[in-house]
# Entry
Amino acid sequence: MTKHLISIADLKKLEIEWLLKKAQNLKKNPKKYHKALYEKVLMTFFQMPSLRTEVSFDVAMFKMGGEIVDYHSETSPWAAGKESVEDVGKVISRYVDAVMVRMHDHEELKKLAKNAKIPVINGLTSYEHPCQVLSDLQTIKENFKRLNVKSFKDLKLTYFGDARNNVTHSLILACAIMGMNISIACPNKKEYMPNPEIIRLALKLAKKYHTKSHKFKVELTNEPERAIKGADIVYTDSWMSYRIPKEEKPRRVKDLFKFQVDKNLMKHAKHTAIFMHDLPALRGQEVSKDVIDGKQSVVFDQAENRMHMEKAILLWFLKNK
# Structure
């Protein structure tokens, strides 16, 4: 069993399939699990603002009979540089059953995990966002019938905008493991392109999990209409994530406006295509109002599924599956 969830790549394909099945069962039969985590305690640590991550993890624990200790960086000696992350990992391992951490530095999170004797769950770093993307896979699977497919291998996901971020990185890895092709449309500048290490890892994972008869494809382009052609899932994210200074906004909006997902762009996807966004969204920037609030949008199903998937993740770590 996986000890920590730091990256999507920490999970095997069969483990992801188990999580998807369990999350759907939890969604359909929540009362069956209302005491599943009785007397279990999850610590949640937040260095950055949160709505979906904080509330969904809290509710997930409460609805399964567990308890939450919320801990924010403004009260933490760790965040103030007065205590080492190594000591934090060792101390909290004596108190709680698992910890979910939302912080900037991915390497710091890995240090915490190395020194913790309890499961460490990545609630978001600047490099990856595995819980979000596992929930996205659940949402996509729920829409197989609408998309006229039976498997992730039959799908193409297209991502638009700033692709050098946590969500895009986790999406690329998840697509590689599950066999879903991905096309990324972004400006031809390093600051907007996925980290090359992620691409290399994705290709390695695809080779591990899929035969030569199924060729996983990851495409990078700065041509939106080319990227969206034949897309089953159209995905975008904020142009101004937490790591971006406010003074950068005018330049970034100018660079990225070509990649806004609007009604005209959606016409080039399959007519059955769904639109996804992990939220928060700014209508009129990365996506137009008529798309995110339109019939093809499943963004609020995505948001809800955070809770169901996180229940499955917590059960995986705290209930011996």
About this structure: The mean pLDDT is 94. The chain is about 40% helix and 15% strand. The first strand starts at residue 41 and ends at 46.
